[in-house]
Amino acid sequence: MKYLSLLFCLFLFAACGNNDETHNDHKKEAHGEEAAKTGYSIGDVATDFSLMNIDDKMVSMADYPDAKGFIICFTCNHCPFSIANEDRLIAIDKKYKALGYPLIAINPNNPEINEEDSFELMKVRAAEKGFTFPYLFDDGQKIFPQYGATKTPHMYILQKTDAGNVVKYIGAIDDSAKDETEVKEKYLENALDDLLAGNDPKVAETKAIGCGIKQ
Length: 215
Fold this sequence. Notes:
Blueprint: H1 2-36, E1 45-46, E2 51-53, E3 58-59, E4 69-74, H2 80-84, H3 86-97, E5 103-107, H4 119-129, E6 135-137, H5 144-147, E7 151-152, E8 154-161, E9 164-171, H6 187-196, E10 211-212
Parallel strand pairs: 4-5, 5-6
Antiparallel strand pairs: 1-9, 2-3, 2-6, 4-8, 7-10, 8-9
């Protein structure tokens, strides 16, 4: 009986030890994920960029002195999620550009990885769809890592302040990445409406759904 009791105690000790190790492993994983996080967070000031537009002219946020802020969209030519959202982006730009928040699209993909995302084919795609906004090429892939974008599309709203262009929203356009008819919550537009009403967005971060950026 004493022998069985001893075995039971040893079993409990081992189980507790394993739980501690598992707990420590989870802490290490969480710390690793936190350490791996890069790019802007809500409240950060985004630096300006100067990138080539499809009209062969350089574009930066400084070119919009009267803007209240910006909608920055990392997107591309070939991703089915990006293609499914093109009409939405055009509608959003038409609506909110007039209210002080123009949309600027940036292709972050490396065309050597996917030739469909070349600068020349960006021009073709923009003409086919009738883009109403600049479509810039992140040459050298220097801008998207600053933002922390990981998907196409990946959305950011910046609000112009005395301190600079402050990040106010990061994430998805809405809650239906592929089918516009299934949209129930318009995250991006809700955040813009909150800002235009003088408030911080009620929902400032959502998960971007799309294709991984090709590096």
